Structure to design on (462 residues):
């Protein structure tokens, strides 16, 4: 067995299987991360919502299973809201209910519908609503509701998918219990797989509070950019009824293989939009030989919209809270469990810049800038096991920048690259032979060194 986790930085449950993040919400000073979880085994099944909380998005504390599957239904992916105005009547104005909106999946796979559960004790214990399901089209594929309070309409807005039809549907409700259909989006963009786990949210453009655009994330499996699971996004406008995309061509959220089913938190203060994805791919998620747990999340990332070369793009960066965990400065050859590598890379000489990260058990991976293809890349060919997969994942620069910034979070189990202001992201799992707890970096021989570089150790617990 490999010690695949090693890092307290990427959330994994203590034991057993995990996939999608669910019910991401901030309430009373705590970030809640619920997740698709099999409480009994290290494989997918008995799907229930696991639960963890954090005060800073980095240091997570796992709590008991929140919403458990029952004799008839599994608890599939969904979201959570705090019902501050007690529209549902589940709580009171003094103690509002946290309400989970999830997909009730019948164990014989014959039926999926949207259902509610509520908690009056900050997500610790939950009651399934006796009137479930609350949105039922009598379909066997209809899932992954993301609910938020829509200020445009002063109502609850649900974004949910018809996976086989490659459609996102929007519904509105005043009380979380009765839902009215508003419109559908799709099929457009990438359609070679089931659409799953949608999320619609507003963001300011370039931080300008007078310019709002809406982002629609849609996970797709298979049919992702690198094969298997992937997430596409569209930018457009929301008029309270319909999402109108500026462009219906797919943008990829991530150019690596291991960032799926990601969604954003509700109710984060200061209008921050924080995203977490499941750091795996359905193509091989079950084959990863980790024990006694299986599945990790990406680092929480703050999403923004930035204008670049006249086009609005989604940008992702590790949340600023990570800075509190940065330790000593390192130079080539120093070892640490996790590293943050920040560099500025020059493209004008037409030369490649490569970093090599070597684990203490000897295997290594590379990432950097490939001048020939004008791409940022990760090459994990020497940091993988026998599981079939592609190994080189790259993202082409879209502009003609003379230099660009790169931030890489690397360890022995994963690499997360945020380049060109976070507009190009690559997330890949790694598999290094033997027990590797620490890594070191060097600038690969024969290539151009970066313009500037700063490397820090990341200490998961302070
Ligand atoms: C995405 C997904 C969701 C579903 C859940 C089941 O990874 O397939 O569509 O709700 O996982 O665990």
């Amino acid at each position: 067995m490999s010690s695949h986790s090693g890092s307290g930085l990427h959330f994994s449950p203590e034991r057993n299987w995990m996939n999608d993040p669910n019910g991401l919400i901030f309430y009373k000073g705590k970030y809640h991360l619920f997740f698709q979880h099999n409480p009994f085994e290290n494989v997918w099944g008995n799907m229930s919502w696991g639960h963890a909380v954090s005060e800073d998005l980095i240091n997570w504390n796992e709590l008991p299973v929140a919403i458990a599957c029952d004799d008839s239904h599994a608890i599939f992916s969904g979201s959570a809201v705090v019902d501050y105005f007690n529209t549902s009547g589940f709580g009171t104005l003094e103690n509002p209910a946290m309400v989970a909106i999830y997909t009730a999946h019948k164990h014989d796979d014959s039926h999926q519908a949207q259902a509610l559960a509520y908690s009056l004790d900050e997500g610790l214990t939950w009651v399934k609503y006796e009137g479930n399901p609350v949105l039922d089209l009598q379909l066997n594929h209809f899932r992954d509701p993301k609910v938020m309070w829509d200020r445009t309409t002063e109502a609850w807005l649900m974004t949910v998918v018809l996976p086989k039809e490659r459609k996102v549907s929007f519904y509105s409700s005043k009380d979380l219990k009765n839902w009215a259909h508003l419109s559908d989006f799709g099929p457009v963009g990438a359609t070679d797989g089931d659409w799953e786990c949608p999320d619609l949210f507003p963001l300011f453009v370039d931080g300008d509070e007078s310019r709002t655009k809406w982002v629609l994330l849609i996970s797709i499996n298979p049919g992702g950019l690198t094969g298997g699971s992937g997430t596409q996004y569209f930018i457009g406008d929301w008029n309270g009824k319909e999402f109108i995309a500026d462009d219906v061509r797919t943008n990829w959220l991530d150019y690596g293989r291991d960032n799926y089913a990601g969604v954003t938190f509700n109710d984060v203060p200061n209008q921050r939009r924080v995203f977490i994805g499941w750091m795996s791919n359905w193509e091989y998620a079950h084959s990863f030989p980790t024990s006694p747990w299986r599945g990790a999340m990406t680092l929480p990332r703050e999403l923004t919209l930035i204008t670049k070369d006249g086009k609005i793009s989604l940008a992702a960066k590790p949340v600023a809270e990570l800075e509190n965990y940065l330790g000593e400065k390192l130079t080539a050859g120093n070892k640490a469990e996790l590293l943050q590598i920040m560099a500025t890379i020059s493209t004008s000489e037409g030369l490649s810049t490569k970093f090599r990260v070597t684990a203490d058990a000897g295997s290594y991976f590379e990432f950097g800038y490939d001048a020939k293809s004008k791409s940022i890349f990760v090459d994990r060919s020497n940091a993988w096991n026998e599981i079939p997969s592609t190994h080189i994942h790259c993202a082409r620069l879209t502009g003609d920048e003379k230099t660009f910034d790169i931030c890489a979070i690397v360890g022995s189990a994963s690499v997360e690259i945020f380049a060109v202001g976070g507009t190009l992201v690559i997330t890949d799992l790694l598999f290094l032979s033997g027990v590797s707890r620490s890594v070191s970096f060097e600038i690969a021989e024969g290539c151009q060194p970066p313009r500037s570089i700063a490397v820090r150790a990341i200490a998961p617990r302070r």
Q: What stands out?
A: The mean pLDDT is 95. The radius of gyration is 21 Å.
